[in-house]
Amino acid sequence: MADYIYKRQSIDDLVPGMVLGKMIVTSDGKIFLNEGAVLTLRTIQTLQLWGFRSVDIREECTTTQQTISENEQLGELPVADLAVQQPDDFSADQQAQSEPAIVEEAEIPLNVPDEFASHYNNAVQVLKKHLGKVRFIKDDFNGDEIRRMVTMDIIPLIDDHSVTDCLQMMPHEEDYLYHHSVDVGIIAGCLSFWMGRNYHEIEETILGALLHDIGKALIPLKVLNKPGSLTDEEMHLVRFHSLRGYKFLKQYGDFSQSVLLCALQHHERIDGSGYPMAVKGDKIHPYAKLIAIADVFDAMTSLRSYGKRATPYEAVEIMKREMVGKLDYEICSVFLDKLSQRFVGDIVQLSNGQRGEVVFLNPHDCTRPIVRTRDGEFVDLDKLRELSINKMLHS
Question: In total, how many domains does the chain have?
Answer without folding.
Answer: 3
